[in-house]
Amino acid sequence: SRGQGRRRGAGDQERTPTNQPAAASGSDDREWHEINWQPKNINFTANPGPVKDAAALDSDKPADYVQLFISDELIQDIVDQTNLYANQYIQNEKGNSPHSRIHAWKPVTVSEMKNFLGLFFLTGIIRKHDIEMYWSTEEMLATPYFNKVMSRNRFEIIWRFLHFSDNKARPANDTDRLYKVLPVLDYLVSKFREMYQPSTNICIDEGMLLWRGHLAFRSYILCDSDTWYCYNMKPYCGEGAALEDTVIHLLDRLAGRGYRLFMDNFHNSVALSKHLLDLKIHVCGTLRKNKGEPPRIMRHNDSVMVLAWRDKKIVKMITTFHENNMEDIQVWQRGHKGKVRVQKPACIVEYNKAMNGVDKLDQNIVYYPFVRKSHKWTKKFVTYLFQISLFNAFVIYKAKNPQGKSPYNTDPGRRLDRNIANHALVPILPTPKKQHPTRRCRVCSRKGLRRETSYCCAGCGVPLYFGECYTLYHSKAHYQA
């Protein structure tokens, strides 16, 4: 399971490895040099943007771009597996189940499944505490649209039997932990790779699937660092799999194109960087100790440069395409009213800009949390795949319609007054704006505390907590903590 706020800058070297292969052995210091570092030049040869069916699609309707991923073919497969599972369950529980409603089950159709998914996605926009509240008839809580589309009982029984693979068809010797979600996972991830070509900078990081229980795998995602498009995903179960194989699998057809890959210290090593360079993939990222680095830093071995730099702590970096130079940047520092000019190695500056693709993806989809409570991780995981699919559709929609806007951006109160089977699959999700923007309290910042407030002084425009902080700030002519 994942918690929130896991963004790691280049100063964080404390990530704990899980199911990690043995660390690389130490390097022969004679292979490493201190001067005459010149990174290899690899030209970028890809054409970023929508490809194949996504490139051929000429439409300004967001639903058409959603259906590039959540297609009739996929929905038909889910319908078939849901009906099969419901029939198997009812046969097994016949005469034993206390829920008479289960025996009133009737097979779901593709059209009805679209209605179900449309309402399901809509709960991420219209937020209520419990699923039952969407069908409430109380005047203050009512959302009549839901009752017009589907009854609450029908929605709940479809959710109960929602299924993605045939349990009885599973071979006795099959140990794949992802068997129950594999059809949906393989279908959607193949569509992710098929519909879009990432730009030059790409990154690999762990996706954030919120789950209170124990998951036997981690989901690693390869994203476009500029658009945050999810190009590929690979659940990593640890057993019988090396991280190097996971990285190579995620790159897929991007190898040989001159991409620049950013990864954290969980993945990086000198050996992997040299191997990827042979595949015409540049690498940059943080580096953990005992990953083949030389005993003294900075050094290079004609293919890879490794350096150490002290910020709040020592940061180790590895790169195959940066020169050994510093860049001027503006940063916030405690005790200063404005940003301060500092110097950082060029590889760290670019790493901090390009490594946040997966974090930005997770940040955008969490704004529309149509993930419902469930005791089954399979439903949570497939819902997460649907969220990524909707965001990917949004990226392609914006690429094809740069002047267009999402319906929910132009008119948040708009009713979906068209055929639910087509138009309810339209949650092309822009990042919502805060209703009451906040800024860091000036007094708390001087004390080293990160607290935000929506209040500011009408006279000086300084953000301050109302009360003690306001009084303390105005008690001195020139405030100092």
TrEMBL record:
> Where does the PiggyBac transposable element-derived protein domain start and stop, copy by copy?
62-394
Q: Which InterPro entries match?
A: PGBD
Any Pfam family: DDE_Tnp_1_7
Query: What sections of the sequence does the record tag as coiled-coil?
Result: none
Annotated stretches, region: Disordered: 1-35
What PANTHER family does UniProt report for this protein, alphabetically? PIGGYBAC TRANSPOSABLE ELEMENT-DERIVED PROTEIN 4
Identification of the protein by name: PiggyBac transposable element-derived protein domain-containing protein
